[in-house]
Amino acid sequence: MKQLQLFLLIGAIISSFSIANAQQTIKEDFKPSTLNQPGQEYPQVNSQGYARFRVIAPAADSVKVSLGLGGRGGTLLAKTQDGSWMGTTEGPMDEGFHYYHLTVDGGIFNDPGALNFYGSTRWESGIEIPAHDQDFYALKDVPHGNVQKILFPSKVTNTSAVAYVYTPPGYAKDQDQSKRYPVLYLQHGWGEDETAWSNQGHANLIMDNLIAEGKTEPFLIVMTYGMTNEIKFGGLKDFDITPFQTKLVDELIPYVDSHFRTIADREHRAMAGLSMGGMETKMVTLNKPETFSHYALLSGGIYAPNDLKGQSDVKLVFLSCGSKEGPERIKSAADALEKSGVNVVSYISEGTAHEFQTWRRSLHELAPLLFKN
Amino acid sequence: MKQLQLFLLIGAIISSFSIANAQQTIKEDFKPSTLNQPGQEYPQVNSQGYARFRVIAPAADSVKVSLGLGGRGGTLLAKTQDGSWMGTTEGPMDEGFHYYHLTVDGGIFNDPGALNFYGSTRWESGIEIPAHDQDFYALKDVPHGNVQKILFPSKVTNTSAVAYVYTPPGYAKDQDQSKRYPVLYLQHGWGEDETAWSNQGHANLIMDNLIAEGKTEPFLIVMTYGMTNEIKFGGLKDFDITPFQTKLVDELIPYVDSHFRTIADREHRAMAGLSMGGMETKMVTLNKPETFSHYALLSGGIYAPNDLKGQSDVKLVFLSCGSKEGPERIKSAADALEKSGVNVVSYISEGTAHEFQTWRRSLHELAPLLFKN
Q: How far apart are CA B28 and CA B51, in angstroms?
């Protein structure tokens, strides 16, 4: 499983890397991050992408923030006259969402000012650096779909397993309650869970906005937990796709097809995943070509032409990553697939790394391409 | 608004009060709380209801847990030989769910071991003390309903407002897609939000289990944010129900009735709320008798016979609280209402205070009484 180890390495090394210009003047136009808890003034972000933190811990000896420029160990806060700890990142952060946490006197805690998001196998603090293209995932005055938490019987996990289902605007109130929809099965990355794509990914708002603009056909998105095996950093030699594949293909898909108005055939079923979810997508789609017809790997590896031999009826292969993730591999893989006759689209997210801004943009590019033929 | 101030006072004083027997021997059968983050060993609870905490903060000078016996200021942790901080509550805690937080060197943080729940206007750590009757809100192998997050247009809040909608098992896959359902509008308490009833309240599991046992008619539950005014502790003199009432009655109800298969009339619409949500329920139901026919106040005050004069067609009044909240007022109010000819049911939750175990049990008692006539 070299491939997954590579994703984790990329995630660890490149994640928060940013080409800093530490000499630039910091603009004092800081505002609370949009992901703060209600009424909380800190953390803050400015128009250049700097993040500023303030933590109350009057008797502490040391407060550090894990977020900062790559390889420099985060941002050390300094005690101020009022007893709070404050500090600003050395340079601007990449646009979009970042996970982080505090280290207070050697203990790891979340920032009481920020909302939490599930990543690195725990709920972590999150901060949002305003992006030049944030409009596509903004909450707007358009018709909204719903995100439903469902519990489905799962023998593999020996319990009721959880999934989230996005149903597009109109699904609930369709006058024509016989209207049926295609489905995208969409997987999170290592350490995340089934909440990631709607919480930090804004998958529902991306879809609501695309549908309002008439840019995509409405479809359902189903998101479930992909770490059915216990997958630990560096311990992936024994990774076995079987438990997750069984849960997805034999348990979840039949449940969704019997509880939602889906078009329950291969032609109207897509699978996509980010990072480790891309690895799972590749394995499941190659093992179960009769189940899916559209495949998408977001910072999640590639298909080689050989992988798809004999799969003449793959409708779409989508490959993407951030420009800071070594995009050449994606481009050359797309070239090779195109030459072998595959309907392939590749996308590089400019200025982003192995983080959610890359994947928000990738979903925004992918959705209009799905279920068109 | 003396009434609301009373609720807040009750919440602050009685919340975690427990009659302790500090002399009893502590059984060493501690297990991780069911509300821990994945893989976390602490906090733990034992079969007597003691809670034990362990926090890593090697360089800290002081770590305290807000949870503990009433009036004693929580539980002070002590540094152990391995550098972690540990401690056990002085006595057993009340059964059910409790909010808490840590104070580390004077700073307030959540416990990294526990999941977070929205209470006291922030996401707080939560712990679950096993209850003798926990079966009624357990996750079982029965058909499950869904909990949907919806966004509805709200001029009052000047944005898309959020609500959660529980749809019972069968709602989605009903062969007869013309089947329509009654609706309970269910409000949280002060400092909580629209996530409280499904996260810490387990409203969905309570309903799934009751429906599986044939003990209640299936109905929808709609939960939205009730602190539309900024309501601060002690600053309630200017409380005005109008913004919340407008959002609920003029915006949310029409949205739900047009986007879900409801029976959109007064006879099939109930309102209930806990604590401050009870105060809101009382005000809205008395202002809008044409909208609701079933009223329930959970640790949320009472109706006097005079309040309901002229409302001859109230189908049900339900009043409840915990036995540690001064239940005499509930009982005497129910007696007075009964004498005046109102169909009233009262319920006292044994051994619980102004906390969610009281409200889980209250919903469990209330649901079978709704929409029967």
A: 11
Containing H/E element for B214? none
Beta carbons of B107 and A56 less than 8 Å apart: yes
Which CATH class name applies to B2-130? mainly beta
CB contact under 8 A, A173 and B148: no
User: Does the domain at residues B136-369 carry the CATH identifier 3.40.50.1820?
Assistant: yes
Sign of the Cα pseudo-torsion (B359, B363, B364, B365, in order): positive
Distance (Å, whole) CA B118 – CA B194: 9
Q: Which of A359, A253, A270, A364 is nearest to A317 (CA)?
A: A270
Helix locations, chain A, DSSP H: 2-14, 196-199, 203-212, 242-245, 253-259, 276-287, 328-339, 356-366
Contact A300, A7 (CB under 8 A): yes
The nearest alpha carbon in chain B to A113 belongs to B122
Residue A123's nearest CA partner among A132, A133, A115 is A115
Residues 35-94 of A with CB under 8 A from B: 37-39, 55-62, 83
pLDDT in tens, chain B (373 residues): 455 555 555 544 444 444 444 457 999 999 999 999 999 999 999 999 999 999 999 999 999 999 987 556 799 999 999 989 999 999 999 999 999 999 999 999 999 999 999 998 999 999 999 999 999 999 999 999 999 999 999 988 777 899 999 999 989 876 777 899 999 999 999 999 999 999 999 999 999 999 999 999 999 999 999 986 554 555 556 678 999 999 999 999 999 999 999 999 999 999 999 999 999 999 999 999 999 999 999 999 999 999 999 888 999 999 999 999 999 999 999 999 999 999 999 999 999 999 999 999 999 999 999 998 6
User: In this structure, what token pair is assigned to residue B160?
Assistant: 């898309």
Spans of all domains in chain A: 2-130, 136-369
> Taking Cα atoms as reference points, which of B169, B103, B120, B117 lies closest to residue B141?
B169
Long-range own/partner contacts, residues B234-238 (CB < 8 A, 24 or more apart):
B234/B5, B234/B8, B236/B1, B236/B4, B236/B5, B236/B8, B237/B1
Task: Give the max Cα distance, chain A.
Answer: 69
From the list A57, A149, A160, the residue facing B139 with the nearest CB is A160
Interface predicted TM-score (ipTM): 0.90
Please give the C-alpha separations between residue A281 and each of A196, B113, B290, in angstroms, as whole numbers.
17, 31, 53
Pick left, alpha or beta for residue B351 (phi over 0 → left; psi -120 to 50 → alpha; otherwise beta): left
CB-based contacts of B219: which residues, under 8 Å, 6+ apart? B168, B181, B182, B183, B184, B268, B367, B370, B371
Angle at which helix B203-212 crosses helix B356-366, to 10 degrees, equals 30
* Crossing angle (nearest 10°) for helices B2-14 and B276-287: 160
* Side chain identity at residue A51, one-letter code: A
**Which of A181, A171, A371, A201 lies closest to A298, judged by CA?**
A201
Q: Which of A35, A144, A174 to mutate to test the interface with B (most CBs of B within 10 A)?
A: A144
Output the six-digit token pair for B119: 């209470």
Query: Quick check: B259 and B282 in contact, CB under 8 A?
Result: no
Does any CB of chain A come closer than 8 Å to the CB of residue B260? Answer: yes
A306 close to A315: Cβ distance less than 8 angstroms: no
Rounded Cα gap, residues A90 and A87, in angstroms: 9
**A2-130 and A136-369 agree in CATH topology:** no
